[in-house]
């Protein structure tokens, strides 16, 4: 055996890999910059609300569907919590199968019903079906049920990468749509007839709506409340969740796979010896939207994972009836790895506080890395709302 050749291969292969990797990193765009998107025409805003008016009942029925393994945490829980706050519709969380749901990247819950039970109770179908991102975009049971609901006249809303599920259900053919920035190319590749509509957090075309990233669930839910019950009701709920104002404006170009994003992901993944489990104590009546945002954000750092704990193994009910199963049974948690109690923190405030805490613990690149995954404009530009300057994006306001 030529040991000199083996030696050169052993040295050269890693060097070649490093060279190729460095070249790839160099091709990525630098850090994203945020710009204030132009205001949305009054006619477009009115058309959006008109398209989202309840199609059947005066008090609508809203079903949020997920699969039992790895439905996205905030996509699933945020619309539920906000819409339940408004009390302008009956809202139910569903799973395709019996038993608990393991949400991704954090939390375990008991859904309120299965799709089969829902169909038996409501043979005429829902008014709205909200479709979160799922670990399997092509789950046969989910796709069949979504198609069935659309056939019964429901307005289908794909949240974040849930647009891929809606697309696989055959409901986006030839329609205007959007999705999470990371899933856009995949969505277009699988469904080339889709007409991508940039710079909008919410896009409605006929009886189908889609949104951008995870944080878009907040303005989407408020827009839906406005369509059902009027602007005053939506503004009241917005104040309750810490969101002074909202609309569909969005700077799509600010969200992309950048050099800092890639480097932060790789650096945090490689620090495998420095992982943390951070504890969130469950308590009755806690705000499920804030819980979802906090657990979701901390579990996206690639440095930490948020786990819930309680003194007993029994489920804990949130403010509006979500039954959360604790990940661990424990009377307490080490103080240095315990996250602040959720309580009744307004969700918009809870998210900003969490990103600030992530920055303090792991640095600004990691906080920005998490915000990019959430498609949340943390360091945005000043924008105009109704002719008046609004606070920077990420300070209790979502565009």
What do you see in this structure?
Helix content is 39%, strand content 17%. The chain is built from 13 helices and 19 strands. A seven-stranded mixed beta sheet has the order 6-3-1-7-8-12-11, with helices on both faces. A five-stranded mixed beta sheet has the order 2-4-5-16-15. Strands 13-14-17 form a three-stranded parallel beta sheet. It starts with a helix and ends in a 10-residue tail after the last strand. Mean pLDDT is 89; it is low at 5-18 and 380-399.
Question: Unreliable stretches, pLDDT < 50, 5 or more residues?
Answer: 5-18, 380-399
Structural class: alpha/beta
N-end to C-end Cα span: 65 Å
What is the topology, as strand order, of the major beta sheet? 6-3-1-7-8-12-11
By DSSP, the count of extended strands is: 19
> If you average the pLDDT, what whole number results?
89
Q: How much of the polypeptide forms β-strand, as a percent range?
A: 15-25%
The rounded Rg comes to: 22 Å
Helix content class:
25-40%
Total of DSSP H or I helical runs spanning 4+ residues: 13
Q: Give the overall shape, derived from the CA principal axes.
A: globular
Main β sheet profile = 7 strands, mixed
